[in-house]
């Protein structure tokens, strides 16, 4: 059996605002509203379904996205154009910087619901797709 993540629900203050933010920053298409959800599908078929909930119901989560070098350039440019505070680390101790972990590049920033987003060009462990095993 092949187990794959199909979708996850992302709690937000405003499902449309958060979905459109993710779509805009990462260059992804925002789907049509379906019930209480606004979906954004990733290139591997996983869907992030944004749902509006009361702010006290939102527990900060972290979502990391593996992207190409060219995609990173576009993402990072849009992060700066939107005037977002960004960091080289998940704890926010290195503002205004990106990291070069595992020979790639990475950046952290927050979405409108307060979730931590991360764009990285190399998976943890340093292996790009097809380079070897961990």
> How many strands appear in the DSSP assignment?
6
- Total DSSP helices: 2
Helix and strand content put the structural class at alpha/beta
Strand content: 15-25%
- Tell me the span between the first and last alpha carbons: 23 Å
- The percent range for helix content is 10-25%
Outline type: globular
Gyration radius (Cα, Å) is 15 Å
Strand arrangement across the biggest beta sheet: 1-3-2
Average residue-wise pLDDT: 94
Please provide the ordered H/E string of secondary-structure elements. EHEEEHEE
Instruction: Return residue spans where pLDDT drops below 50 for at least 5 consecutive residues.
Output: none
Largest sheet: 3 strands, mixed
Overview of this structure, please?
By secondary structure, this protein is an alpha/beta fold. Helix content is 19%, strand content 24%. The chain is built from 2 helices and 6 strands, in the order E-H-E-E-E-H-E-E. The strands form 2 sheets. Strands 1-3-2 form a 3-stranded mixed beta sheet, covered by helices on one side. A 3-stranded mixed beta sheet has the order 4-6-5, covered by helices on one side. The longest helix has 13 residues. The radius of gyration is 15 Å and the shape is globular. The mean pLDDT is 94.
């Amino acid at each position: 059996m092949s187990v794959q993540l199909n979708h996850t629900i992302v709690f937000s203050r405003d499902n449309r605002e958060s979905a459109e933010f993710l779509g805009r920053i990462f260059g992804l298409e925002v789907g049509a509203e379906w019930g209480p959800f606004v979906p954004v599908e990733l290139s591997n078929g996983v869907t992030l379904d944004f749902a509006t909930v009361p702010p006290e119901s939102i527990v900060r989560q972290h979502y990391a996205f593996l992207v190409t070098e060219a995609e990173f350039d576009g993402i990072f440019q849009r992060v700066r154009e939107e005037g977002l505070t960004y960091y080289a680390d998940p704890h926010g101790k290195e503002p205004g910087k990106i990291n070069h972990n595992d020979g790639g590049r990475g950046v952290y920033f927050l979405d409108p619901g307060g979730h931590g987003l991360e764009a990285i060009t190399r998976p943890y462990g340093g292996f790009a797709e097809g380079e070897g095993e961990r």
